[in-house]
Amino acid sequence: MFSTQMGKRLKEYVRDYVVFDLETTGISPYKDRVVEISAVKVVGEEVTDEFTSLVNPGMHIPAQASAVNGITDDMVADAPSFEPAGF
Which of 17, 30, 44, 62 is the most exposed place for a label (fewest CB within 10 A)? Predict the structure, then answer.
């Protein structure tokens, strides 16, 4: 696994890291919202922790997004909202 820091690639193996994934209502950073966040923590080549949560985007999830990520309005109706930090 290679890591980037400050926009530069480190050419060394990183044993401990976290990978995260966001599912959204579309591809626009201006109008679309997060509907799921997931993360996997790896320590020494072993997955040591996992996290996943649906997120209520506060808007209708378009059919095109549901077709890609499988997440529907009903699934996020009771999920917590996603509040951006510092924005």
Answer: 30
Q: Exposed, middle or buried: residue 57 (CB in 10 Å: 0-12, 13-18, 19+)?
A: buried
86 domain-assigned: no
The CA distance from 32 to 26, in Å, is 5
pLDDT tens sequence across 30-69: 999 999 999 999 999 899 999 999 999 999 999 999 999 9
Contact 31, 70 (CB under 8 A): no
Query: pTM to 2 decimals?
Result: 0.78
Domain interval for residue 68: 3-73
- In this structure, what DSSP letter does residue 81 have? B
Residue 85 within any structural domain of the chain: no
* Distance (Å, whole) CA 38 – CA 29: 18
Domain count, the chain: 1
